Amino acid sequence: MPSLSASLIYKEIDLLKPISFDKVFNFERFNSLCNGFVRLGRYSDLHNETKPFVLRKGSGRKWTKERDLNQLHQCKEGAIDKFEVIKVDGKNPFLWHDHWPIMNYARIFECLTLVDELEADVSAVIARIKAVGAEGRSKGSDVGKNPIMPISSQNYVTYMAIHMRIEKDWMLHCKNLEQRSNIHQICSSKKEIMERVANITSQTFPIVVYLAVADSLLEDNSILSGWREGLLPFEKKRLGVWNIYKKHPYLVQSAIDYEVCLRAEVFVGNSFSTFSSLIVLHRTQILLRMGVRSICADSNFSSYAYNILGDFGAPKKWMTDMSASSLQTISYGTNNVSCHV
Questions:
Q1: Same-domain check for residues 125 and 171
Q2: Is residue 67 domain-resident?
Q3: Which alpha helices (H) appear in 151-269, and where do they start and end?
Q4: Rounded to an integer, what distance in angstroms lies between the CA atom of residue 131 and that of residue 265?
Q5: Helix (H) or strand (E) holding 104
Q6: Looking at the predicted structure, is the pLDDT value of residue 156 above 80?
Q7: Rg of the chain over all Cα atoms, to the nearest angstrom
Q8: What is this structure's pTM?
Q9: Which H or E run contains 118?
């Protein structure tokens, strides 16, 4: 069973502790939904007491599928049948991005369901967002601190989620990446994000905007000011849901934000962020299951990349290229995004 971990450029050690997969996702449900494709096992299910066979790998993103294949051939020559477990060891021993095409990777998302506690927390956060949005619709942009709205009447309320990558760990990373790659569409300032989002014209205003940010890494305390009229920005604390988040470690807070962004009618992220890219991949998979292959026209489930300028000063519409043979664009990022698969 895999563990989940964070990869932060700005090394906040206390935020990097790994979490067991089954603390976030339903283990049995995963195996049921992915039956015949991939399966997880628990170490406690093993029958013998042999030590694991240690398979040492190199640094993750420098590792290639050719090296993998050669290493597997070498393992065939040894007597490893007596081992029940192969332990992949090394610095960041990722098995991706070279190994799976996008379509196969996307299947994993169909097997991931949150454990009941986290699903309840996600539902509570979204209910709060929609309650604020409902009051915003009825009172214009003058939103009270404690809006009260029956859950049944919140269903029609739409919201926008923005993965607002302006935290200190990201700004260090994106500036270095721009210099190395000679691409100047990676970093985005708060002002640029606000200006481009304001030019999204397909939505009914006012609309509540949930800002997904890593609060513990955020140095700008003015992210709620300066938005155009009709955009009602909220983050965890002003929304009144910090009590839900603070009981969880950093990784689980990220998982809640992921689901809140995933389920938004409009999502806006950065195409060089793995977090944003995975959300758009997941949203694209959902649209494909619905028979939608393009969001070039107006759509009720659109995604945008705010770091790339689109039509009329808005962020560029974004769907994942599902025909790609590897995960390279997701693990490294890209400025070549499109509104169709």
A1: yes
A2: yes
A3: 168-181, 190-198, 236-239, 242-245, 250-262
A4: 15
A5: helix 102-109
A6: no
A7: 21
A8: 0.85
A9: helix 116-139
